[in-house]
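Contributing new records

If you add data, match the layout below exactly. Sequence lines come first and carry their own label; structure lines follow with theirs. Keep one chain per record. Anything else will be rejected by the validation script.
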Amino acid sequence: MSAMENLPTQENGLLRFMTCGSVDDGKSTLIGRLLYDTKAILADALTAIEKTSKKRGLDAVDLSLLTDGLQAEREQGITIDVAYRYFATGTRKYIIADAPGHEQYTRNMVTAASTANLAIIMIDARKGVLAQTRRHSYITHLVGIPHLVVAVNKMDLVDYDQATYDRICAEYRAFADKMGLTAKGFDVRFIPVSALAGDNIVERGDAMPWYEGPTLLDILETAPPAGTHERSESFRFPVQYVIRPQASDDPELHDYRGFAGRVESGTVQAGDAVTVLPSGIESRVKAVHIGGEPIDVGHTEQSVTLLLEDEVDISRGDMIVKSGNAPEAKKELRAMLCWLSETPLSPARTYLIRHTSRTVKAKLSGIAYKVDINSQAQVDATQLAVNDIAEVGFKLAQPIFADPYTTNRETGAFIVVDESTNNTVGAGMVI
């Protein structure tokens, strides 16, 4: 009986995870193997990559072609853009992000990490822990991914040697301890795999009898679902749209005024006392709707419409919170910033900061330090280049209502936009 047939039958919810690490360590192949062994590949897609593999003179199917969708990626055999894939095992649904390994595409990796709940850190068993391994591990730590799986890949190329695996695990543990991952309660697990041969991905195989832990699919199946990691219980509801029906022939809609948005954290139900920010006006929730139908409770990540008992002037960009539990209004922002643009961050420029549904003008007030990813040392800096990570300060034209990123990933994050090009040039996490 295969591992797929032994899976439990209960629904385990959605899991968003990503693969990251250095180039050529087998991230795309691992995802392809996972999709192949869980029977999640459509017949026409499998036929297409079989033909491509034969044209290249390969003896086996190149499963990395399943995620390397860009022509440039296939020509160079690398991942450039973030590739998302979706699959289900019957007990759980997955969204996978395949992040690029090259340092120059670190900004794409940050994008993938921003929504992941679990990260698979890939390490080539022949090369051990590399600079890019440390860089990506630091970023996963920075963006608050709570569950890390260190997959030591290409074990088939080191004769499935346990001593090699143990040495790499010890080296990574020392790095993780130095970075404070273990002390801060991050869940770090290790597994030896061969993505090419399929060992310990879905099936255990016979090559590594010395490893008695779970397979990669076993770890994924039992990981906490998306949205359950240390999520804040504070209710945060950025207003995205005000619904005022114009159907004058329907008297029931004459006085309808709903506030649409996504519950970023916490819950909301009829009768809750709420405060509207930035005005500070208080009211009570009259009803919570989804698709025009009332529901008892609106939960985190649900897009709902709130109806209030009082006529309150609310616009897009305002935030509705529970009374007595409002975040602090910030006109000066301290944050860890990943700079994503080829154009350096300039204190002379004005930028736009987009936080939830609110956009404000901002200027850089200072760079406290830049992080040396390899050593985690704090170094002085006067400007930031692409892929730099630093603690910075911004002065805002209007206040925003942000929580610290460590307590709320949704309301603690923002992006920096170049107002002249409208390009996203930075991703920040509020301190």
